[in-house]
Amino acid sequence: MGNDLITILAHRGWWIKEEEKNSKRAFERAFDNGFGIETDLRDVTGEIVISHNMPEGGEMTFEELLKLLNGRNLPIALNIKADGLADEIKRLLEKYNHTNYFTFDMSIPEMVYQHKLGLNVFTGISDIVPNPVLFERAKGVWLDSFNSDWFGEEKITEILNKNKQVCIVSPDLHKREYKKIWGRYKNVPGIMVCTDYPNEAKEFFNDKD
């Protein structure tokens, strides 16, 4: 059976060509089709911008991304690439009344500060970092598999039973086969899956056969 309760996040938006990653077009395509997104936040010249690598200028701003949502409270996963962004992130989220989000991948001092500020912080668990930082304080877990497909339904359920949300990094982000692995957690309700293939994931997880 499929699972209507699995939330799909489009990794850097729903891009068709590589150059569309983290672009306005990729975000529009994702939002217009009801997908959440994962994206990267950095700062340049006093603004928070969307950029996986070091910004060079001219990048889309975080505020422009929130405007694209146009009131749709779709889930957004914010990969924090620099320290010192928390106050402005919170201000902008509140300005656009966006509550369906989480931050992750920040430094430990930044994570502590974001938690104190009241942001929705996810910690990380992976085959490289099996012992998560500040697990008890985190809203959820960014569950990754850098080198091997090490977890399945049992591990995911264990985390969910501790009242934590779970967002799974699909193996396709690490250039590995993914559909067989999706099958391991196809019937686990309430999880998020971040993938480069959001439409394919939607069809797979909602397949009733």
Detailed description of the structure:
The structure is a single chain. The chain has 209 residues and is an alpha/beta fold. The protein has one domain (7-205): Phosphatidylinositol (PI) phosphodiesterase (TIM Barrel), CATH 3.20.20. 27% of the residues lie in helices and 21% in strands. The protein is built from seven helices and nine strands. It has helices spanning 24-32, 62-69, 86-95, 108-117, 153-160, 179-182, 198-205, and strands at 7-11, 36-44, 47-50, 76-80, 101-104, 122-125, 140-143, 165-169, 192-195. Strands 1, 2, 3, 4, 5, 6, 7, 8 and 9 form a nine-stranded mixed beta sheet that branches. The longest helix is centred in the middle third of the chain and has 10 residues, at 86-95. The radius of gyration is 16 Å and the shape is globular. The termini are close together.
